[in-house]
Design a protein that fits this description.
4-stranded antiparallel sheet
Length: 366
C-alpha cells in the first residue's frame, strides 16, 4: 500500500518538480478569482424592497417632468412657412424661376403678426423639411483638411468631394456636396407701423456657431488674412454658389472658411426635418421687450429652391431657457415614466396586501 503525499503548495497552484517529462496541467490556479470564490452579493427582491423603489421613482420623476414641461411651455416660439407652394403665397412667383446660383434673385415679403411679446434675446432659425443631410455619401462629401486651412488640400481636394471636387480644371473651395448645397436665402426682419413705414430689425450674425468649430475645425489657409482673394486665387466657387468663399462677409473675422453661416450649415443634421441658427436679435434694454407685440414682415431674397425634393422652408423665432429651446418631449417622458412606476407600485401593493400572507398562513401537510 503506497502512501500519497500532500503539499499545501500544490493546493495553491504550485506543483512540485518531479523527475520525468513535464506535463502541462489544465487545472486553473487555486486562486479566489479563477476558482470563483470572490465575495458576491445577490439582491433578493421582496415587496419591502421593490414597492418603495417604484414609489420613490414616481415621486421624484413626476415633479421633475412637470417642471421641465412648464419650462418648455414658457418658451415662446413663432414659425412661418415661406416656401411659396400655395398660389396665394407671397413667395409663389419666386418658386417658378428661382435658381440656386442666380445673380438676380426674386424678392418676396411675408407679413405676419406677433400676438405676444418676446422678452429676452430672440433666436432666428431657418428650417428645412425632407432634406436628408444624414445620407452616407452626402455626409462624407467634404474635405476636413481643406476646411482646416491645409494648403495642399486647398489645391488638391479629397476624392470624397466628387463630383464637386473640381470645376473648369480648378479645385473647388470649399469642395463637396455639403458645401455646394449651402442654404443661401437672405432673411431680413422688419417692424411695420400703422403709418405704413417699416424699420429693419438688427440681426447679429456672429456667435451662432460652436466655439470648437469656429476656432479649431475651420480655418482659412495661411497667407494675407486681409486679402482672402489672393489666398483663394487658384480655386473656384462651388457650382450652386453665387459668391466666392472670400466674399461671404466684409468682416475679415467672419469671412472665408470661418464664416459662421457656412460653419453652421456644415454641421449636418441627423433628421430630414431640421432647423439651423440664422442670427440673434439681442435685447437692447430690460425695460422693453426685444420684439413687442405687433405687425412684422419677413423680407426674403429667394435663392434656395426646394421643390426638386418636395421640401419646405420655414423661418422660426424662438426664445430659450436654461434647458435650451422648446422641447416638451423630456418633460412628457419623465411624467410618463414616473406615472407608470407609481401605478405599478399601487397595483403591486394591493396584490401584496391581498395575497402576500397566504403562504405564511397555509399549513404544510405531513
Amino acid at each position: 500500500m503506497m502512501a500519497s503525499s500532500y503539499s499545501a503548495k500544490e493546493e495553491d497552484g504550485h506543483h512540485s518538480v518531479t523527475a520525468g517529462p513535464a506535463v502541462k496541467s489544465k487545472k486553473p490556479d487555486n486562486t479566489a478569482f479563477k476558482q470563483q470564490r470572490l465575495p458576491a452579493w445577490q439582491p433578493i427582491l421582496t415587496a419591502g424592497t421593490v414597492l418603495p423603489a417604484f414609489f420613490v421613482i414616481g415621486i421624484i420623476f413626476i415633479p421633475i417632468g412637470i417642471g421641465l414641461l412648464v419650462t418648455s411651455n414658457n418658451i415662446k416660439e413663432f414659425e412661418i412657412d415661406y416656401t411659396g407652394i400655395d398660389i396665394n403665397s407671397p413667395c409663389y412667383n419666386c418658386t417658378q424661376y428661382a435658381l440656386w446660383n442666380s445673380t438676380t434673385p426674386c424678392k418676396c415679403s411675408v407679413p405676419f403678426t406677433l400676438e405676444q411679446p418676446f422678452e429676452s434675446n430672440v433666436f432666428m432659425y431657418y428650417g428645412l423639411s425632407n432634406f436628408y443631410q444624414n445620407h452616407r455619401r452626402y455626409v462624407k462629401s467634404r474635405d476636413d483638411s481643406q476646411l482646416n486651412g491645409d494648403k495642399n488640400s486647398l489645391t488638391s481636394p479629397s476624392k470624397e468631394c466628387e463630383p464637386y471636387r473640381t470645376s473648369n480644371n480648378k479645385p473647388i473651395a470649399p469642395c463637396g456636396a455639403i458645401a455646394n448645397s449651402m442654404f443661401n436665402d437672405t432673411l431680413e426682419l422688419y417692424s411695420r407701423f400703422s403709418s405704413g413705414d417699416k424699420q429693419k430689425i438688427a440681426l447679429t450674425k456672429k456667435g451662432i456657431a460652436w466655439w470648437t468649430d469656429k476656432n479649431v475645425k475651420f480655418r482659412n489657409p495661411s497667407g494675407n488674412a486681409s486679402n482672402l482673394k489672393e489666398v483663394f486665387q487658384d480655386t473656384t466657387k462651388p457650382l450652386n454658389w453665387q459668391k466666392n468663399v472670400y466674399e461671404l462677409d466684409t468682416d475679415p473675422d467672419n469671412n472665408g472658411f470661418i464664416n459662421e453661416d457656412f460653419i453652421v450649415w456644415m454641421r449636418t443634421a441627423a433628421l430630414p426635418t431640421f432647423r439651423k441658427l440664422y442670427g440673434i436679435i439681442e435685447r437692447k434694454d430690460n425695460m422693453s421687450p426685444t420684439l413687442p407685440r405687433g405687425n412684422y414682415s419677413l423680407e426674403v431674397m429667394y435663392h434656395y429652391t426646394v421643390h426638386s425634393f418636395d421640401g419646405r422652408k420655414r423661418m422660426i423665432l424662438s426664445t430659450i431657457s436654461w434647458m435650451g429651446g422648446k422641447n416638451p418631449f423630456l418633460g412628457i417622458a419623465y411624467i410618463t415614466v414616473g406615472s407608470i412606476c407609481f401605478f405599478l407600485g399601487v397595483v403591486l401593493l394591493i396584490i401584496h396586501h391581498k395575497y402576500g400572507n397566504r403562504n405564511s398562513s397555509a399549513e404544510i401537510p405531513n
